[in-house]
Design brief:
The chain is α/β, with parallel strands linked by helices and 333 residues long. It is 47% helix and 16% strand. It has one domain: Alpha-Beta Barrel (TIM Barrel), CATH 3.20.20.70. The protein has an eight-stranded parallel barrel with strand order 1-2-3-6-7-8-9-10, surrounded by nine helices. It has a two-stranded antiparallel sheet with strand order 4-5.
């Protein structure tokens, strides 16, 4: 394990004001978004769309790297240039989603665990040879206060798989992004969200330390502490910023490589505003705090492209502007 590389690459990925763009939607998820906008769901259209994102002029000014899906890392531009080469030309890092999705935990109604450890080492060796320097693994944590979710068993199972993945990634000199997403679906309050997020992160970092994971060479991708989407009382931007930063300070080691947020069902504006408020209220933080948004940056560009698939430039301009807005949010602007 090259700890110097891991810590340097992690810092590069979250060097403010830049953030990470997640374009790692699985084929079913990408196809569903296409269907909703009337885009034919073909491999070629997925390739064209990913080319639009990766080749957007100036995207590298706000984005340090992109998380890709297995299909995407193997694709090329219409003129035959591998996407991996475009990343090198732009000075952006290549990331890869390596989990294989979630399954129900037996006898745990509403709780999930993440698969993908089998054969992971061989896949990471291949991705490393293709130029990947970081990877991502997502766990799903549902909140249901009446049912007592999440259970301790759910948190333990997912913390262990995140730690095993992180260990294999670091052994291959790939920076692991660990993503324990606390889902915002539900009627829970922001206080409930705080309690569950705190418990999730505490459990995770306890397990990571037990497995001797190199913390400075690791990035946490986390959800914000936020009200459930059907909660009658929605927290303000200031409350979200205050409680999220408090939760992170109490549960995340100060020597971590960095922290990035997922948008997790927020609108594009909400995700940007909440991030901006955190930096505005906390000009000095113990770790780099940035974004790793997918839909919150992509979706307006995807809608523009769906309206006129020949007009790539307009969609790219929208994409770059959204990325820039979030980079400015990292500066409290």
């Amino acid at each position: 394990m090259d700890t110097q590389f891991l810590s340097t690459e992690a810092k590069k990925l979250v060097a403010l004001p830049k953030g990470i763009l997640a374009i790692d939607e699985s084929m079913p998820t990408c196809n569903k978004r296409f269907e909703n906008l009337g885009i034919p769901t073909t491999e070629e259209n997925r390739r064209k769309y990913r080319e639009l994102l990766i080749t957007a002029p100036g995207i590298e000014e706000s984005i340090s790297g992109m998380i890709l899906f297995d299909e995407t890392i193997r694709q090329s531009t219409a003129t035959g240039i591998p996407f991996t080469e475009i990343f090198k030309q732009k000075g952006m890092s290549i990331g890869i989603k390596v989990d294989s999705g979630t399954k129900d935990i037996p006898n745990h109604d509403g709780e999930k665990f993440t698969e993908g450890l089998e054969g992971l080492n061989n896949r990471l060796v291949e991705y490393k040879n293709m130029g990947a320097s970081f990877a991502k693994w997502r766990a799903v944590i549902n909140i249901d206060m009446e049912k007592g979710l999440p259970s301790n068993e759910c948190l333990d199972i997912n913390s262990k798989s995140l730690s095993q993945y992180a260990q294999i990634a670091q052994e291959n000199n790939i920076v692991p992004i660990v993503e324990p997403e606390v889902i915002m679906d539900g009627s829970h309050t922001i206080e409930d969200s705080y309690t569950v997020t705190s418990k999730t992160l505490s459990n995770l970092f306890k397990t990571l330390k037990e497995q001797n994971i190199f913390i400075p060479g690791l990035i946490l991708k986390t959800s914000m502490v936020i009200s459930g989407n059907t909660c009658p009382v929605q927290a303000t931007t200031e409350q979200i910023a205050e409680m999220t930063v408090k939760c992170l300070k109490e549960n995340v080691p100060s020597d971590i490589g960095g922290i990035v947020f997922l948008s997790g069902g927020q609108t594009e504006q909400q995700a940007c505003d909440n991030l901006r408020m955190m930096h505005k209220m906390n000009p000095e933080l113990p770790w780099a705090l940035s974004f790793s948004y997918g839909r919150a940056i992509q979706y307006p560009a995807l809608k523009a492209w769906a309206a006129n698939m020949e007009d790539v430039a307009t969609a790219q301009n929208i994409l770059v502007e959204n990325a820039r807005n979030n980079a400015n949010a990292n500066l409290g602007k």
